[in-house]
Amino acid sequence: MAKLKLALYWAAACGGCDVAVLDINEKILDVAAIADILLWPVALDFKYHHVRAMPDKHIDVCLFNGAIRNSEQEELALLLRAKSKVMVAFGSCACFGGIPALANFSNRQGIFERVYFEAQSVENPEKTLPQPHIKVKEGELELPEFHDTVRTLAQVVPVEYFLPGCPPTVKLILTAVDAIAKNALPPPGAVIASNKTLCDECERVKEDKTITKVYRTHEIIPDPKKCLLEQGLLCMGPATRGGCGAQCVKANVPCRGCFGPPPGVLDQGAKYLSALASIYDVKDEVGIARMLEEIVDPAGTFYRFSLADSMLKRKRL
Amino acid sequence: MKKISVDPITRLEGHGKIEIFLNDAGDVENTYFQIPELRGFEKFCEGRPVEEVPRIVPRICGV
Fold first, then answer.
1. What does the pLDDT read at residue A1?
2. Residues A216 and A124 in one domain
3. How far B1 CA lies from chain A's nearest CA (Å)?
């Protein structure tokens, strides 16, 4: 049987998804036994011109991690889409925008000014900024164009499967690899994770208590057995898809929603706001004002990993 | 002047490319190393609660 052809790519990402693939340990040898890897910048020396030279649909499965932040990442998404039979949005950045999409609270100008002019470690008296084209004495150099708005992979090209997580867990990666190897992939559009919320998976005791105060994580040491939200910590469990093995809540740390919205939910932050409003015991406007004061960064918390995928997609500037 | 592009550079964390310019004799005239990526943590950490920053900045580099 011909070996499967795999490609792995990273766009606006941290490399953690690539390392997560290696976290399957010796199972990577099984992958190597059934598949030839045709692109994987972190691990193998293939160039973009190798990909451009491939016939269309030459790659069986592309595992694409990272959000779409600049023109190069958009070009690579389009290129790999054309060359791949199956496109998998791998990890929270490709699925929902992830941490890089927090930049959608700002825009290119805001980011450039902070990074290249104002940052305390920067000295840039000539106010040099990255340019898409720049003339040097030997010729011309090109850099990708930095976009105003971070997008998810599916906002740029059609995507068959979504494998969420920051990073995806070894268990889910092996589920996906198994399905690819056995040619038993689910129907297109499937999210390779749980179809329940994190709360459904969480083993903590829930007593349907209302909360009277929201605490910041450094203000209390939570009871390790009781629901974190009922203890007043903003845990994203009610508005987050399960499948992660509840790693954060098992470490006594509230969920930040990296698996994205559960099935049927279009907007993770709005869902969470609704969940929070139903549990917070507030009777009058004074109470509402107090609640708003206690939640220091609602948008940056409720949309920590899903701003690009939200209904608003970005802050209006 | 002939230009050789090494794009992307591989087997390291992050994105990079190298442009090598050759003169008429075929010797290297100049070489440029470019970083074609930026996410802007310096900007989007602004406004986040300080106790949340340890959960955001590990995503600068996951390798």
1. 66
2. no
3. 7
Handedness of CA A42, A45, A51, A52 (dihedral sign): positive
**Rounded to a whole number, what is the distance in Å from the CA of B56 to chain A's nearest CA?**
7
Residue pLDDT, tens place only, A114-131? 999 999 999 999 999 999
Tell me: do A281 and A160 sit in the same domain: no
Asked if A103 lies within 8 A of B43 by C-beta distance, the reply is yes
Range of the domain at A123: 108-147
Strands (E) in A160-270, as ranges, are 161-163
The per-residue pLDDT of chain A, averaged, comes to 96
ipTM of this predicted structure: 0.96
From chain A, pick out residues whose CB is under 8 angstroms from the CB of B11. Answer: 41-45
Question: Residue A14's closest CA among A112, A99, A95?
Answer: A99
Q: Is the pTM of this model over 0.90?
A: yes
Number of structural domains in chain B: 1
**Residue A97 in contact with residue A151, Cβ under 8 Å?**
yes
Mean pLDDT (whole number) for A61-69: 98
Pairing of strands A4-10, A35-39: parallel
- Answer whether residue A115 is part of any domain: yes
- Interchain proximity A111–B32, CB inside 8 Å: no
- The answer to which of A146-150, A286-290, B52-56 has the lowest mean pLDDT is A286-290
Looking at the fold, whether A79 and A140 belong to one and the same domain comes out as no
Interface touch A119/B46, C-beta < 8 Å: no
Which 8-state DSSP code applies to residue A273?
Answer: H
Average of pLDDT values for A10-28?
A: 94
Indicate the residue of B1, B8, B39 with minimum beta-carbon distance to A41.
B8
Short-list A113, A108, A117, A87, CA closest to A11 = A87
